[in-house]
């Protein structure tokens, strides 16, 4: 029983905790056996969790037949660093087992000259599919789509379709239906598998297919594709070219990769680290990336400090101002951030645009005004009791003004950035914080200077 418990405990132990001692002690044979039993997604996470020198050792121990699938699940930066070190033929052998859309995805991180050489070594059909995928802009359905969908004609019967399917040893992954096309290859609809197996063999495809299953353009942005899958609970959707001809399909697992990438990027950009996917990147590289954002933050903080400096005499005469002014800026920042988060989310989900911005602005100003009056009254009362009535009135007025301005900025900033083609998630919070700090200090210290001194 004890040995069995130890075996279960060892199997349940995180992969990194199992691998690290083997690397440190040089037990590479044992490590190679361990890696062979792991899924490619777990291997990708492991590689990203190791310092560069250990990452390269583990990469060498992963069978070449599995390296292509592992590359698919790595962050761009880590994948590019490994590809740069792989010999040409080794990279070709790793990519050959992959689907055309996956090969195209990996080749995005390969220099053009090396990419062309790899394409030359692929079989004709795969090369044609990869080249077609690469012909579409990055971040579109054309890059996401796969070419393994089963097509059937609308003018045949169910019995003929079933006979045709029996020629396939297995159906492509995520196949929930067959794509129905006419004699020229134009998309007409989808024949769902549930319909296929429940209809009589004499029924014609055109009479039982789902014509309401619309296709998407190969040029549709991947964000829109993800929203479509989310709204309609899709498993797969047909992709057509500009003329309406069927060219491929996008499946839910491809969309999940898009959503995962968006979520990870959203977390990174909150700290200005949108490009730093490799947590074990070289020190100088990471320092250089972070320096830009630290410099921008220094500039915005200096602006707020300059505003405070203009009221140095006022602060010297009334120490209570120095004690209370961080509260005004902080409350404005929180109120604005709440609105900013809702607006950015609405933009990402396609729920916010110029057409409904006015209504959203009125709503948020109403919410901001009510909350500002509530908390301004409470803070004003506290300041009244601790310091003096005038200080309480000034901080109450400053809080009301700054919190109301903050929610307005929380609506305007992301919408304006989005219209300018700038990702609101990347820079909106920094702009908002600058506005709330500067306006908070300016309002509070300005009112105090006018009415109290």
Can you describe this structure?
It is a single chain. With 453 residues, the protein is mostly helical. It has three domains: 2-139, Alpha Horseshoe (MgtE N-terminal fold), CATH 1.25.60; 151-269, CBS-domain (Roll), CATH 3.10.580; 283-452, Orthogonal Bundle (Tetracycline Repressor, domain 2). It has 23 helices and six strands. The chain has helices at 2-12, 15-25, 28-36, 40-48, 52-61, 64-72, 76-85, 88-95, 100-107, 112-121, 124-134, 141-144, 158-165, 193-196, 205-208, 222-232, 252-269, 283-309, 312-317, 320-348, 354-386, 389-419, 424-452; strands spanning 151-153, 177-181, 187-192, 216-217, 236-240, 246-251. Strands 1-2-3 form a three-stranded mixed sheet. Helix 13 links the parallel strand 1 and strand 2 (177-181). The longest helix is centred in the C-terminal third of the chain and has 33 residues, at 354-386. It starts with a helix and ends with a helix. The model is unreliable at 1-12 (pLDDT under 50).
Low-confidence stretches: 1-12
Strands of the biggest beta sheet: in what spatial order?
1-2-3
Main sheet attributes: strand count, strand direction, barrel closure: 3 strands, mixed
CATH fold annotation of the largest domain = Tetracycline Repressor, domain 2
Helix percentage range = 55-70%
Overall shape: it is globular
Total helical elements = 23
The tally of structural domains comes to 3
- CATH architecture designation of the largest domain: Orthogonal Bundle
Instruction: Give the CATH level 1 class of the largest domain.
Output: Mainly Alpha
Order of helices and strands: HHHHHHHHHHHHEHEEHHEHEEHHHHHHH
Q: What is the count of β-strands?
A: 6
Annotated CATH homologous superfamily of the largest domain:
SLC41 divalent cation transporters, integral membrane domain
Strand content: 5-15%
Mean of pLDDT: 86
Q: Supply Rg.
A: 30 Å
- Structural class based on helices, strands and sheet pairing: mainly alpha
Through-space gap between termini: 81 Å
